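thread from #wetlab-drylab

HS: before we spend reagent money on co-crystallization trials with adenosine-5'-diphosphate, can we at least see a predicted complex? here's what I'd submit
DV: go for it
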Amino acid sequence: MKIAFCSSEVFPFVKTGGLADVCGALPLALEKLGIEVSIFLPFYKSIDVTKFKIEKVAAHVSKTTLGNNIQVYFIANDKYFGRDGIYGNKEGDYPDNLERFQFFCEQTLEFLNESKWNPDVVHCHDWQTALIPVYLKERYKKEDVFKNTKSLLTIHNLAYQGVFPKKEFGKLKLPEELFGLKGFEFFGKINLLKAGIVYADGLNTVSPQYAKEIQTKEFGCGLEGVIGSRKNSVVGILNGLDYTVWNPQVDPWLEYKYSAGDSLENKRKNKAKLQEKLQLPIREEVPLFGFVGRLTHQKGIDLILEAIDDLVDLDLQLVIQGIGESKYHTMLDTLNMRYPKDVALCLTFDEQMAHQIYAGSDLFLMPSTFEPCGLSQMISLRYGTIPIVYNTGGLTDSIKEFNSRTQTGNGFLFADYTKASFVDVVKRALAIYQNKNQFNQLIANAFTSDFSWDHSAKEYQKLYQCLPSA
Ligand code: ADP
């Protein structure tokens, strides 16, 4: 079976969030199942060409390999990708994002067509590649290469849809009549994700719970009707984690390696190191909470800010790492001045720092307002760091409340999105933290939670095999 994997981010080449982690890890897991995978992504300026052996193979295409023999193709165009940002800069999204990702989708299919590599499935991810299912049916259906090709669209986050003014429709090189209720039209604008949802042969999202939620008004972001009309085709497959990238036993960014079987002495040493690096008081007994995520409303930054006085009163330390909306950068900056001994900030994108936070923290905050899957809670578990999450989406599917009587569960959940319940769940977690036996049991449960890709990759394989005929 041959899969063309198309994504705007792929780890280790370029990453702004979990999409990159997934698109870097799932192909490796599929390859282990004997599936032939090629990956396509834009050749951004930020990709470090000194780190990878990249060679030019066509006018707009360069190539490297990943895993054993996964071909990774970079679609190049300096006009579109020769800039610092991936999707935008400080002023916001790039105004020519429709052209940029149209170019990416078109050139990917052109390259496949010319190289005669006939994929069984083109697996697309999010709005940036949602044009591909449309192009396959409207522009490439007569091409021999794609005679038996089906398309799968994975929705990693329905809140991002690729919405553009109607006047740009001509740039998509499609017949005018496709701008309609049954095509791209969404409240008078072009909506790329919507068109992808309509055209893709298969549709899935990244957790079973989110697959249900996106069919409701509350989480459907206006597309619940379109998704509902294809409800028999919407599958939820929980993301996995690349357990070779995220492994405290061999993590090159940790000074002190550790694993489930250890005494946790090294985890404590990582905590002290982190406190030192963050210029927080080096106190072993104080619970250190971590947060790593994009600074957007979705990730719960507003709730953390609202609750901060109450949290700090509980005698804990908190480190917040993230980049995102400038208003949050401003609001967080003042926090550090108010609580220099309790709150530390790292407002940069820094992979090494993230690993050190996952390892050095005792507990991890993830009060996302919604969460398609979430990888940070899974990473925390892998590092023996206990997640505290809102009961939504993939967080519901991956975290179970710790029960001190039965000694089961791997974290803490709150179900009302209010400051009171958030502070309450933190207190509940602290009560367990103070009881060393209980907390050690909880850490042991975290370590045994298994979110490796082995299981979910098999589900993708099944999905590829049973997509309806193109
Ligand atoms: P999302 O994809 O919605 O951003 P996920 O929880 O699925 O959220 O994945 C987030 C990924 O991005 C994790 O690997 C997390 O460690 C990483 N990440 C987020 N912000 C930063 C940052 N500022 N620096 C380093 N890594 C980050």
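DV: The pocket of adenosine-5'-diphosphate is lined by residues 17-19, 21, 292-294, 321-323, 349-351, 354, 373-376, 379 (CB under 6 Å).
HS: ok that's useful, forwarding to the group
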